[in-house]
Amino acid sequence: MRIKALALLLLHSFLWPVWITGQNLHLASVFGDHMVIQQGINAPVWGTDLPGTRIRVDFAGFITEAIAMADGKWIARMPVLEEGGPYRMKVTGSDTIVFDDVMVGEVWLASGQSNMEWRLASGVGPDTGKEIAEADHPRIRFFTVPKKTSIVALGDTETQEWIVCSPSKAGSFSAVAYFFARELTLHKKVAVGIISSSWGATSAEAWISSEMLSSHPDFTERVAAEERDTAKWNSYVRYALKAESEREVIARTSFKGIEDGVTGLSYDDTAWETCCHPAEMKMMGLDGYWGLVWLRKHFIYTGKETGKEMKLIVDVRARDAIIYINGSEVAHLSNPGNQTEITISKGIVKSGHNVLSVRLYVNWGSASVGSNKTTTSIIADGGRKLIPLDGEWKFSSEIETPVAQWQDYYNRPSVLFNGLIAPVIPYGIRGVIWYQGENNAGNGYQYRTLFPLLINDWRIRWQLGNFPFLYVQLANFIAGSVDSGESNWAELREAQMMTLGYPATGMAVTIDIGDPEDIHPWNKLDVGRRLFLQARKVAYNEDIVASGPRYRSMKIEKEGIRISFDSEGSGLASSDSAGLKGFTIAGSDGKFFMAEAAIDGDEVIVSSPFVYEPVAVRYGWKDNPGCTLINSEGLPASPFRTDDWRGL
Question: Is 353 helix (H, G, I), strand (E, B) or coil?
Fold first, then answer.
C-alpha cells in the first residue's frame, strides 16, 4: 500500500483543513468551556484569523504564540502539561476568546457504530436509573460530534458544548464511553475528556479517508466512482433525510389497522400469513424490514373470573409496540427489549374466544413477539390459571402505509471520516476506544486488512505516533443460529483478534456478555471495564492481566489435541461448573464434531470419540456460542480456530 506517499499527502491536509474564514479570530468548535486538554503532549490549538495576525494562547501559566498564514489558518502547540485545573484559556488575536473551567487530563476518542453510540438512558440493565442517579463525576466531560456526512473532509463541525458529567446530563452519554471514563477517572484521579463520534449501523469503510481507502484493492474503483459534486451529494442527503423523517411520521400516525378493525374479534385474518411463536421478523421473511407489522393471536379463556385483573407476560422487541386485546389497548411500549408484565384491566378478556393484537414498528427487521427463553401467556384467576399464547400466530405487513426502507447515505466510503473524524483532528488525545464490526460481519476476510487500514489512517493523520487503539470484539448474538461449522460473526471476531498483531492495540472480549436476541446487549458496564483493563496495560503500561486466555499453539497427541494459551493469568478455569463448553474438533475431512475439553495445567486437551485422527480445533466458532473458558481473573477466552480453512 502507498503508506509513505499517503503520509506526506495527509500531513498537509491534516494541518490545514478546509476552513470558512472570516475577518475575526475563530477557533475550531471542539474548543470550549469545560474541555479537557491532553496531558503529556504538545497539545494543539488551532483556528483562523486575519492573515499575519499574531495569535497568543495563554493557558495554565504558559504562553504560546503562532502567526496566521496568508489564508488565515494558524496552529499553536502548547508546552507539555501535567494534569490539573480548572484553568482559564485566553486566546488573543484580532479578537479575544476566553474558555473557562478547562482541565488537563486524559482525552479519548470514542467511535464506532450503535453499540458505542448507545446512550446510558437507553438502558444498561435493571440498574439504569441508579447508574444515572449516581453519575456525579464533574471531572468527566463529553464532547459529542454532531452527525454529519460529507464527500470532502470538513475542517470544523457545528458548534457543540463540552458537557460536565452529572446525573442530569449523563443519560445522553455513550454508555460504553461513560463506564470507561468512570473507571479511568477513579483509577488515575484525573479529569477525563471523551470526544464521542459514533453512528449506528455503519461500516468501517465509511470511517476511513478516501486517500487511504483507495489504497485497498477492494475499494480502489469504488472510491474513484464516488460522487464528487458537493451540491449533488447534499441534495441526495436531503432526500434521504426527508424519507427518514416521513417514515417516523407514518410510524406515529398510520393506524389504518384500527380503522379496519384488525384488533377486534370479528376481523377476518384468514388471508394473513402464518408464523409460529416466537414471532421473529427474520423467520417471517421480513429480515431487514422497515415498517409497521400487525400480529394477531387467537386464544380461549375457559374461566369465569372476567371481572378481575389479569396479567400478560410477553417478551417484545421493537422500535415501538402497541398491544390490544379484543379491541382495547392494554400497553404502549417504546423501544421494548425484554420480558414485560402488563396489567389487563378487568372485563377486557371475555369468556370463550378472544384475540390479542400487536402493532409493531420495525427497524432493520429487528423485532419479535416472544422468545425462545421465555413464555408468552396470560395469568388469570388470581394466578391459578395460565393461558398459553404460543403456537400459531397470524401477521401482515401490508395493512399500514409503507415506509422508506434503509437510507444508507451514511455508509458511503469515507463520508463519516469526512464529517465526524476530520473536524476534530488534530485535537490532542491519548487514544481511541472503538466498538464496530457488526456491519462488516459478512466480510470477515476483508476486515483483516480494512480494520488495520483504518487504524493506520487515523494514526497518520493525528501525528501522535502509534497511539493506543482499543476495541471491542463482537459479542455473542443471533439466537438459534444454525450450527454449520461456519460463522460470519466468528470470522469477523477472528479478524479483530488478528489486528492485535499491530502495535499498541488492545481488544476487549465480550463473547460472554452479549444478548442472543438483541444486537444491542444492555451490559455496557463490563464492556467499559474491559476496555479500561486494556487501557491500563496498553496506554498506561501497568503490569496486569488485561484479557482472558488467547490461543497460542496446538500439538496433536494420541489422546487428542493439546492447546496452549497466552494471557492465562493465574490459571485456566471454566465459568460453568459442568466444565468446558464451546470446543469442536475435526479430522482431515474438515467435519467438526462437538468435543470434550479438559484443563490440564495451563493447557486444554480437546478430543472426541467421533474423530480418531484430529487435525484441527475450534472454540466459540458460532454466531452465538456457549463459551466457558476463562482465566482465574474471570476474563473470557477469545474464540479461535487452529485451522486456516476457507470459510464463508
Answer: strand
Q: Which helix (H) or strand (E) holds 458?
A: helix 444-462
Question: Got the DSSP string for 127-173?
Answer: THHHHHHT---TTEEEEEPPP---SS-BS------EEE--TTTGGGS
* Residue range 229-236: mean pLDDT, rounded: 92
* Residue spans of alpha helices (H) in 228-356: 230-253, 256-260
Cis (ω within 30 of 0) for the bond into 278?
Answer: yes
Q: Which residues pair with 76 in a beta bridge?
A: 45
What span, in angstroms and rounded, lies between the C-alpha atoms of 529 and 523?
11
What is the rounded CA–CA span in Å between residue 508 and residue 468?
Answer: 13
Task: Output the nine-digit C-alpha cell for 419.
Answer: 464529517
How far apart (Å, rounded) are the C-alpha atoms in residues 159 and 157? Answer: 6
Cα(280)–Cα(276) distance, rounded to whole angstroms?
A: 9
Report the SS3 class of residue 469: strand
- What whole-number distance in Å separates Cα of residue 536 and Cα of residue 545? 10
Q: Enter the pTM of the model.
A: 0.89
Q: Residue 435 and residue 200: Cα distance in Å, rounded?
A: 10
* Domains defined along the chain, listed by start: 3-21+105-217+413-538 (3.40.50.1110), 256-396 (2.60.120.260), 550-641 (no CATH)
The whole-angstrom separation of Cα 11 and Cα 7 is 6
For residue range 15-73, list pLDDT tens digits in order.
344 333 335 899 999 999 999 999 999 999 999 999 999 999 999 999 999 999 999 99
Q: Would you mind telling me the total number of residues written for the chain in this entry?
A: 648
For residue 250, the tally of other CB atoms under 10 A from its CB is 17
Handedness of CA 453, 454, 456, 460 (dihedral sign): positive
Cell numbers for 481? 443460529
DSSP one-letter code for 381: G
**What is the maximal distance between C-alpha atoms in the chain?**
89
3-state class (DSSP) for residue 450? helix
Which three cell numbers mark 339?
Answer: 420480558
